[in-house]
Amino acid sequence: MPYNNTQSHSNQMTDEHIDTLLQHDAYMQNLQINKDKLNECQKSRGFQSCLHCEQIIACQIRIAYVNAVYESMNKGQVGDFDFN
Fold first, then answer.
1. Is the predicted pLDDT of residue 21 greater than 80, yes or no?
2. Which residues, in sequence order, are CB contacts of 19 under 8 Å at separation 6+?
3. More confident residue, 81 or 61
4. Which of 16, 41, 49, 80 is the most buried (most CB within 10 A)?
C-alpha cells in the first residue's frame, strides 16, 4: 500500500492540537491551584481581598497567583495575550 502523506499530516495536526490542549489545561490547572492558595490565605486572615493585608507588596502567594494569571492568559508566550 502506498504511503499516504495526507493521513500522516492529519495525525500530526491532531497530535499538535492535543499537545496545545494539554498545555492549556496545565496553565489553567496552575491558575486554579494558585487561586485556591490565595483564597485560603485571605480566609485565614479574615480578608476578602489582599488589599487589606500589610504583606500585599511582598506576598509570595499573591505574586505566584498574579504570575499564574498572566501565564494562563498568554499560554506561556512572552508578550501578547489571547482574550478568546
1. no
2. none
3. 61
4. 41
Banded model confidence at residue 5, pLDDT cuts 50, 70, 90: very low
39 inside domain: yes
Grid cell of 54 as nine digits? 500589610
The domain tally of the chain equals: 1
The reply to whether 9 falls in a domain is no
Q: Is residue 3 part of a domain?
A: no
Q: Is the dihedral of CA 79, 15, 32, 84 positive or negative?
A: positive
Provide the 10 A C-beta neighbour count for residue 65: 22
Q: 21: helix, coil or strand?
A: helix
Distance between CA 61 and CA 47 in Å, rounded? 14
Whole-prediction pTM: 0.65
DSSP code of residue 78: S
50 lies in a domain?
yes
